Every structure is written in C-alpha cells, then in structure tokens.
Amino acid sequence: MRNVSKHEIDSASIPQLKQLCEEIRSEIFCTVSSCGGHLSSNLGVVELTVALHRVFDFPHDKIVFDVGHQCYPHKLLSGRAENFHTLRKAGGISGFPKRNESIYDCYDTGHAGTALSAALGIAKARDLKHENFEIVALIGDGSFNNGLIFEALNSLRILNTRVLIILNDNGMSISPTVGGTHEVLKDMKDGAASIDDVRLFERFGLSYMGVFNGNDFNELLPALEQAKERLNSQNVLLHVCTKKGQGYAFCEHEPQETHGISPHAKDITRKEYSHALGEELSLLAATDERIVAVTAAMTDSLGLRDFFNSYPERAFDVGICEEHASVLCAALATQGLKPYYAIYSTFLQRAFDEIIHDVCGQDLPVTFCIDRAGITGADGETHQGVFDLSYLSLIPNLTIAIPKDIGEFRAMLRLSQNYSHPLAIRYPRAGIESAPNHVEIGKCELLHSTLSDIIVFAAGETGISIAENVRNKVQKEGIDFTIVNARFLKPIDAELLLSRKEKYVITIEDNALIGGLGDAINRFYLNSGKIICNFGYRDAFIPHGDISLLQTQYGLNEDKILECIRKFYACR
Amino acid sequence: MRNVSKHEIDSASIPQLKQLCEEIRSEIFCTVSSCGGHLSSNLGVVELTVALHRVFDFPHDKIVFDVGHQCYPHKLLSGRAENFHTLRKAGGISGFPKRNESIYDCYDTGHAGTALSAALGIAKARDLKHENFEIVALIGDGSFNNGLIFEALNSLRILNTRVLIILNDNGMSISPTVGGTHEVLKDMKDGAASIDDVRLFERFGLSYMGVFNGNDFNELLPALEQAKERLNSQNVLLHVCTKKGQGYAFCEHEPQETHGISPHAKDITRKEYSHALGEELSLLAATDERIVAVTAAMTDSLGLRDFFNSYPERAFDVGICEEHASVLCAALATQGLKPYYAIYSTFLQRAFDEIIHDVCGQDLPVTFCIDRAGITGADGETHQGVFDLSYLSLIPNLTIAIPKDIGEFRAMLRLSQNYSHPLAIRYPRAGIESAPNHVEIGKCELLHSTLSDIIVFAAGETGISIAENVRNKVQKEGIDFTIVNARFLKPIDAELLLSRKEKYVITIEDNALIGGLGDAINRFYLNSGKIICNFGYRDAFIPHGDISLLQTQYGLNEDKILECIRKFYACR
Question: What pLDDT shows up at residue A172?
C-alpha cells in the first residue's frame, strides 16, 4: 500500500475515506495472511483510526495503544505503508507500537492495561513543560477488566490533567470479555444505563460520551470533534462500539479464531503443548473433583476450551486479571482443591508478587502451567518468555519443572496431581509428542550416558534438541558427551550432580543466562574444579524475528557450543 | 488479657461488649507500646471485630483481612490473648494473619488488595465441596484503590458465589486515601450518593448496605445480622465508617503518625535513609525542573513529605497502586522528565512486570528508590526485602546500585540526575550518615586493599559492616583481607574484578543467595580457578523477629564467615 498524507485524509470526502479503509483492510488482510499477526482486532478499528488521523494531528498529538493488537491501521497511516510487508519479520515492522520505529509511536506496549497510565504520564509531562498537544489512549473493553487500568482511572483526580480515553468496545479481548465491568458496558450499549452512570464517571474525573458506532464515519467524526473540544477542560471517555473483524465475513463470524493468525502451514511433526494440557487436565478432572482450572482471558490458546466445556463449574476465566487469578488459585488451594493456572510465560510476570506472597508464601499446591516459554518469535520484546526460570528460581517453596517433550509434560501433570507444594511447569508452544515417561520430583534424567569427560545439562525441548544436534555432529569427529535432561531446575538434583565425575560441564537453556539453570549449576559446582560453560540468552531484550535465528543470535548458537565441546575435548 | 469465649461474647450486654472493647484497646495499646506494631488501624476496628465475633461463628465461618494491619482484635478474641505480649517477637504472635498460628486465620496477608480474591477462592471451594459456612473479607478503603481488588470485583459475576465484603472506611490507608474511588465513597458517606450507585454495585454482582457507624454496636449488630441474612442469596458489600485510632485521643488526632509504632527509643547513631532521600530530591528539584517524585501511599515513611509540600505539582501519591506508579514514571520519562519512584522493596514486587515491560523495555531513565531492603524484622515473611537484588538482576537495561551508607546514597542520587537509563538504588531503613563520596556508574570501591590472598565483595551497609566486623576480629589473629564495596551489582565492575589476583573470594549480601551478588560473582569468575564462598540468605521465607538475629540465622553468620576466612587463610 502507498503512504497516505495527513493532507489527503483531511481533504477526503466520506466516500474517499471509506475507499481508504478498503485499502487499509486489504493491505492488513494480505500482509497478515503471509506474515501472520493480529487480524480481526485490527480490521475492527480501521474507520476509528482513519477518523483519529483526521481529527488529530499526529505525531504532534500522541496516541497510546493498549496492548497494541490494534495498531496496524495507525502504522499504515504514519509513513509505514510501503514497509508494511516486512511485518513481524526480523528487522521489519513490529507488530506492536515501537518508539524506535517511528515518531508516531510514543509508547511501547504489548501487555494489557498500561495505556491509561502511560497517557496520563505523557499528559502530566506536557503540562509541566507547558506544551500543548492532545493525548489519546485507545483501550479495548477486554483491558478494562485489568487492575492497572482501574488504578489509572482512580488517579485521574490526583493527576489533574487531560486525556482522551477511547473505549473500543467490541465485546472481546481475545476471548469474549467477561465480568462486572463488561455488564456495566453492556448496559450502556443497550441504553439501560442512566444519567447516573455518567455521573459516576464524573466522580472519577471523566466526562463520558457514548455510545457511538466506531465503524461509521458519520457518527465517529462529529463525536471525535466534540470529544476534542471537551478535552480543553476535562478528561473525556469516548465509548465507541466496533465490530471485531469488520469487513471480512469470516473474521466477523469467527473473531476469536482470527484474532491472531499464524503465517505458515502447520508443521505436523510438532504438536501444541496446550493440546496436551487440555487432554491431561480433563482426564485428571474426570476422577478427581479437586481439579480446577483458571485462565486470564486466554482459554483457547492455552488448550482449555474442552475442559471449560466439560467442567464449567470448575473452570474460571477471570478476564485479563493475572494477579487476581493467582490469588484465587492460592485461596482455592487453602481449601484442599487442586488449582491449575494456565498462562503465557511473559504474562505471568504480572503475578510475580502474588506467586511469592500468596502461593509460595503459604506453600500451597497451585500448579502454574506456563506456556510460550523461551523465545516466541514474531511478537517480539514484550512477548518473549525468557525470564521465567530466573524470576521463579528465587522464590522459596516453588518447584520448577521443564519437560523435554510433550510426553514428559503429560507425566509431570500426572505427577502434579498428588504433589502438595507450588509447582511451575514451563514449556514452549510446540514440540514433540511422545509416550509419557516416569518422572519424579527433583530427579533429572540421564539421556545419554557416555564415558566421556564432558557432560551437558540441557533444559527443555529447545535445550535438549540443541544438545542432541551438537552430539550428532561431534560424534562424527569421534567426540561424545553425556546429556542430562535437567527437567527439574528446583529442587536441583543434588544426588545426580554429586555423582557425576565429568570435569567439563555445559548448560543449555532457552532462558536468560542471568538467574537460570546455568547459575544454579554454577552455584552447585562452585569450587568443584569443574570447567563450566553456560549457554542461554545474553542480557538484552530480544526483538521480533524467526525463533531459531533469534535463538542463535542471542546465545543458543550451535556452532559456539560445538566449538566449546571441541575445546573441552582437546583439553582432556 | 485473658482469653474470651464465643459464649461470653454472645451472651454479653452492650455495656459488657463496650467493656470488652476497653480491655482489647488497653491490651493493644500496652503491647504495641512495648513490642511495636500497628496501633491506630487496630484501635479503629475493635467494635467491628467484636461484633463480627458475635454475629459469625469463627473458625467455622472464615474471615480474610486485607493487608492485616487490623487483625489484632481478632487475634485477641481467638485464643491468642494470653500470648499476645509476644507480638512480633521471634517465635511469638505475628503482626499479620498466619494460617500456621491459628485455625482462626484462614489466609495469610501482608500486601494490599488480596482479600477479596482470597475470599472468593475460599467461597468457591466451599460451594464445590458442598460445605456451608460464611466468608467475610475485611478491606480498608485504602485498599479499594488497588487494581487487584478491582479485578476481584470484576469477577464476582464470573465466580457466582457469596461473600460478605466489609469496607472499613476510615479515609486512610497509611496516608489519607486518595483518588476517584475515594471520591465516590466520600459521596456515599455524605449522603450525596443515590439509588443508582447502589444499582452500580448490583451490576457488579453485589448488594450494597451502608453507611453504618463501625464503632457503634447499636448500628453494627443489626447491620451485620441483616448482611448475614442477605448473604444467603447474594454477595454483600457492607460499608462501615470507623475512626482510625478510636479510643485514644492522640491516635485519633494523629492517625498517620500512630499507624505503625516502633518499640524502642531511637538509636541516634543510625539515621533513616528516607530522610536523605527527601533532602537530596528536594535539593535536586530546586534547580532541575525535570525532577518528579512518585509514591504509592507511603509518602511519609519514604521521607518525601517535605518534597511533596515544596513541589506539589511535581509530586504524585497515586494510592496503593504500585503498578500504575511504575507505568506513570515510564511515561513521564518518555517526555524528558526525571521520575523518582520511592517504594519499599517488598512492595516493588507488585510492579515487576511494569519494570520490565514499561521502564526497562523502553530503557527509560526512571530511578527506583527502594527502601526497606534486606531483612526488615518484626513484620515478618511478607515484609522482608530480600528478593530485590535477585528479581532486578535479571532485567536488561537496569543498573543496580547498593549504597554502603547514607553519604554514598546521597552521591548516587546526585549521580542519577544525569543518568539516562533505568536505575535501582536499594537500601535498608537506617544506617550511618557520612559525607557523600565520589561514585561512578558500574565502579565498585576498594575499601581496604591488602596484600592478602583473600578478597571480600560486600554489598550495602549490612554486608560491609559484617565484613568490617569480621576483619576486626581476624586482624587480631594476624589475618587480613581486602574488602570491596560492591556498590554496583549491575553493570558489574569487570575491570576491577579482572584486576584482582586474590585466589579466595567471599561475597556478602543482605539478600537471598539465589540470583543476587554471589551468583553474579560466581558467573564472572567461572573457570578462573578462584575459590569462592557466598554468604546471603538461604532459600526460605524469613519470619518475624529481631533483625540481626534473623540475619545470623538465615545465612549472614559472622562466625561462619570468620571460619571461612580462617580456612582460606590456612589453605594459602
């Protein structure tokens, strides 16, 4: 698609604006079909974004996107149309707002609920610097469940500045939106809300305007103009309804399935861990009434739809509320239930304090099923799951398991059923299916035992497959080494570690080097005289790109490991 | 005070209940005067707690306290009166609810905002197990600002169970409550609220009852009876007003100053770091308009009252909203301002994701002033600041500074003014004042350089004072060692570390062993042939007790360090 100037947008007729929307939709549809990315969420906000670019003057005015699953039209209208075909590719356009990509992006996002706090900070800075521009926070109704948004709403009166909040209400986060806030919004859309709801917003320091059709320029443009006018004297909440997937019948009918799109045909040799989670939990739940499952707005992508359908009374999707979900699990566990909290690695960061304070502080048998661990690829910095081993390791009472494949994952889930302490199981999105093996808490597995003086401790599917690849290569050179499946990072397998006599030790993990498996092995073998080399990710935020390329670039480089093995072999 | 039976409370006349309240107040006042603890918050809820013990049947029914600053009357009425004089002492009664202390405590707390999620989890478990008891969540209005409470409110309709929320509204958290929620509550108290506010609660799945005088049995008892009745069919929010400090004129007039009480006369040789923070920030702000300060409801205890008074337009107390405060700082920094976010170590855990996602992910110059680091003593497990070096170390782009005394802290704050990356400075509550020295980012300080083959890397005031003490002792034996003030954990001082030729290395830090300074030194000196010994806290939650005793018990044992030095000396 060609780049479009502000002047063109400003001078276009409504039919011309509609034509522009068609171009934008077509570009998004084509690009996402080939690159993957967020589809329906972006299709829904095309008119809204065009209208915003007409009424406001970006980048002089600023726009903050909550999460960022709806920023593609903005990218296309801010000089990035001609590059848009590089979406989510290494070095190409990011799928999320990025300050270092364009001056039209004023704040980086990726996790939910940050936009209002960010907009308020920018607004307050503007006031202090006596500058004059407008700030828009575009927030989906799914994010309005999140505690962080509420904390920001609560502080509107404290901060005493002016921002425009656009509540983009499509009734969905990734899954349909749930909860009390959603009920209130539904009432407002249904016309069941009263003047008093408006008064409530006023008490929080907001002038409410709504509800407008966010896919219709005839409603949108005057509403935005009026909101901009009001913004001179107060904070404004503009409530617009949009249709997720608008413009493509299939997306409109299946907004959940088309929220995010994977670019390539599925690799049939690799299965999703989430599928195994769903199967195993359903099996366990069939004979164990203590089993309950909790998710934070991602039931489908975590593989739990069938569980939710089969055991609706024992399945809780609490919306984008990662902290609340943790405490809820802790409390369920105090009463003898067996909660499984399924979540992506990067989003669990939100519940860090609750893992410590509520779950592990009380030593409660909550099982964290941590999906999308390791480098996740095309979503970039805000979605890599490379910190979990580090931030979990430091927590007392927590057992940390890293399955080597899906069979072992199943075995760990079965083991967890009668385990009476907090347990974290972290795994990547996809991997190899296999028969469930025998797993014991805190016991690692000797995968290849050799007489060599070199031993590799490898964690998880990524670590182990790299170790195996390297082994296949060096075996041709007459070199061999022992491989341990470091399937429990905590408690560490002291017995096995003490028993190993190899002088040369290598650790491989799909996690940041700081604080992970490598550090644990270093600590254990301190002063042992062993020569150790750690492979994991260097201390950096890892951008979007191809998973295996990023792994290589950021520290899991097979050639370097090979080199290290050869060096060790030569030193013997 | 004697233990009081449920039967006594049930059969007492109102004058007898009042008499009981006097006894409870007197016991709390005397005990807190000698042991320290939370005073005004507990004095305010005496009648409420007595009334709850009359209307409900604990421990069959359950009560969850938010934070726990108001649980003393409950402890006195649940068989712990005769032991109450051991409050906050090692092995004695905890200042917070503790499941392992009494079956009357069903959920451990210490951080704000968890009570409603916890109550809902317990209620849901009750329903699934077909049990029959009532659950009360006692929540102060200060906590109602917290995002976690909102997430739990949002899920009332999802979870479909029944709990009684008592909103204990005294207009205060530790500081006066602030924000939009507070405005709404104030309206309700002032009678300015309408039937529609009640309807709003109903949409969230709550039946609202209020406002009642929480210090008056004649209002309280019938209100609680009615709430209990309603609880048969729905969730209930009972809004009661209490007077913080009730019963002691000084506490009523100075609720903020008497919220928490220290037991002993002040050690005049030790100053508060918070005082230096206030002084330095005020000085910097006088000539630098970029400086802004942000707190989450603890302005006074962080030393920033004067700053807030002098620069009200650049000072933001956002209430108990640690996450929002972080994002706000990040956004202010995107616009060229210089935010200082002052917070206790343990509470910063709440903002872990925002430190990663918002501040460090965008490499923004926010300075975290992290008070109460290390073992903090009498508040116990939920308040020890022993994880921060670990959870901060793993975050890219973050510089971590650990001042050795207050002078160095001042120097670091001055240095921070023109530092353009995220910076965390962590320090204990109190320490030694000194003249500000010269500090450079990433440069450690050689405190005592000797010709010995032993070097000690000590972090912070606690680490260094232990190192100095040990040195004073071994010097009498003719042994000496070098001491490095490891004032930057990140970036590590590679130049200094590489230059040191000592074979024997010791690390000392007032932090968990996992993930802290020790691990960083181990990683750096991997395969160097050095013999290393790490001293820090073992992998456990550290209970309440005397600070220096706990330090010794959990891993900073001077005798063991002494022993290690002697062993190293003998090995040379």
Answer: 77
Of residues B25, B75, B350, B487, which has the active-site annotation? Answer: B350
Buried b (16+ CB within 10 A) or exposed e, A272-293: bbbebbbbbbbbbbeeeebbbb
Q: How many pairs of residues across A and B have Cβ atoms under 8 Å apart?
A: 363
Instruction: Express the helix, strand and coil content of chain A in percent, nearest 5 each.
Output: 40, 20, 40
- pLDDT number for residue A195: 61
Element (H, E) at B485: strand B482-485
**Residue A319 is nearest to which of B126, B155, B329, comparing CB atoms?**
B155
Out of B47, B134, B322, B354, which one is annotated catalytic? B322
Q: Which of A428, A138, A177, A204 is nearest to A321 (CA)?
A: A177
- Is there a contact between B328 and A527 if contact means CB atoms under 8 Å apart? no
Percentage above 70 pLDDT, chain A: 98
**CB pair distance less than 8 Å for B180 and A156:** yes
Q: How do B271-272 and B430-431 pair as beta strands?
A: antiparallel
Q: What share of chain B is helix, strand, coil (3-state, %, to 5)?
A: 40, 20, 40
Are the C-beta atoms of residues B32 and B250 closer than 8 Å to each other? no
Distances (CA, A) of B213 to A541, B47, B52, B216: 53, 10, 14, 6
Question: Residue B193 above 70 pLDDT?
Answer: no
Non-local (6+) Cβ contacts of A331 within 8 A are A358, B107, B117, B118, B119, B120, B121, B122, B125
Name the amino acid, one letter, at A200: L
Phi, psi of A316, deg, nearest 5: -130, 115
Separation CA B315–CA B20 (nearest Å) = 44
Neighbours of A475 (CB within 10 A): 12
Cα separation, A287 vs A275, whole angstroms = 20
Distance in angstroms (rounded) separating the CA atoms of residues B459 and B461: 7
User: Does B357 score more than 70 pLDDT?
Assistant: yes
* Pairwise CB contact (< 8 Å): A534 & B526: yes
- What Rg value do the Cα atoms of chain B yield, rounded? 26
* C-alpha distance from B568 to closest chain A C-alpha (Å): 12
The answer to whether ipTM exceeds 0.95 is: yes
- Rounded mean pLDDT, B318-332: 97
Condensed to tens digits (0 to 9), the pLDDT of residues A275-322 reads 999 999 999 999 999 999 999 999 999 999 999 999 999 999 999 999
Question: B138 φ, ψ to 5°?
Answer: -100, 115
B252 is catalytic: no
End-to-end CA distance of chain A: 60
- Under a CB-based contact definition with an 8 Å cutoff, are residues A509 and A339 in contact? no
**What are the Cα distances from residue A456, in Å, to A377, A440, A532, B253?**
26, 20, 10, 66
Q: Across the interface, do B155 and A328 touch by the CB < 8 Å criterion?
A: yes
Helix (H, G, I), strand (E, B) or coil at A332: helix
CB contact under 8 A, B155 and A316: yes
For chain B, the first-to-last Cα distance in angstroms comes to: 60
> Is B208's Cβ below 8 Å from some Cβ in A?
no
Say how far residue B87 (Cα) sits from the centre of its chain: 18
Q: Are B551 and B523 in contact (CB under 8 A)?
A: no
Given a contact cutoff of 8 angstroms between Cβ atoms, the answer to whether A556 and A535 are in contact is yes
